[in-house]
Amino acid sequence: MILLIVSYFVIPGIREFVHEAYYVLLSDDRAEIRAWVSQLGFWGPLFIIVTMVVQIFLFFMPSPVLMVISVLAYGPIWGTLLAIASVLIASIVGYIAGRIIGEEALYKLIGKSKKEKLESYVAQYGLWVVVISRLSPAFSNDAVSLVAGMVKLKFRKFILATLAGITPLAILIGWFGESNERLQTGLIWISIIGVAFLVGYILFDRRRRAKNRTEG
Predict the structure, then answer these.
(1) In Å, how far from its chain's centre is CA 205?
(2) Rounded distance, CA 27 to CA 62, Å?
(3) What is the DSSP letter of 62?
(4) What is the pTM of this model?
(5) Other residues' Cβ atoms within 10 Å of the Cβ of residue 188
(6) Run of H or E residues at 95
(7) Consecutive sets of 10 residues in the chain, 216 residues long: mean pLDDT of each?
């Protein structure tokens, strides 16, 4: 990661490549996006995976955007599989980083307030917070990887929850990726459903705990 950042500032060619990628990939021109990624050839999938990992720490491009780019460049089947693999790899890197870098570094990366809220939710509802954060674009699924590692959520549980959440989202993007209107509508609805489910589960769990304390 440090090597990539240093290369950006030291090597003009890499800096120009990053600027070009940033403006093309965030444009609304789907044909240009598809052509730009396709011309990378063998390095295209690796570029998407590396970009997915980098954005965990730099937050310059939401992961659902990269998933859409993957589908545009490689089609609904291979693009969807690449999107799932990219998120999974990035999530593992984020989890490991969360175990290593410590609280102060997390404060600087995601902010103290967000870190403390996520830490509380992951500690209490670990499995479901990870699933919903992956499923719903309304949540920061990058930050949750870092926090899950920091609170030492079991790795196997974290990976299964990540797959359970990201797979439906990737399939949705793969299915509707060719239509902006349908994709936006689908993402809005899946965000609403995900948020409603998580809020409902939290309220149910709090009521259950309060009832147990009363009976105890």
Answers:
(1) 26
(2) 14
(3) -
(4) 0.75
(5) 12
(6) helix 63-110
(7) 53 63 67 79 86 77 78 85 92 88 70 66 70 69 79 86 86 73 70 74 75 67
Query: Residue 50 in contact with residue 12, Cβ under 8 Å?
Result: no
Question: b/e per residue, 104-134, with b = 16+ CB within 10 A?
Answer: eebeebbeeeebeebbebbeebbbbbbbbbb
Q: At 193, which amino acid appears?
A: I
Structure tokens at 57: 């720490």
Both tokens assigned to 24: 């093309």
d(CA 144, CA 174): 24
Check the CA dihedral 62-65-70-73 and report its sign: negative
Radius of gyration of the chain (CA): 18
* Tokens linked to 145: 């990887």
Q: Which residue has the tokens 């509802």?
A: 125
Round to whole Å and give the CA distance between 55 and 1: 11
Contact 138, 90 (CB under 8 A): no
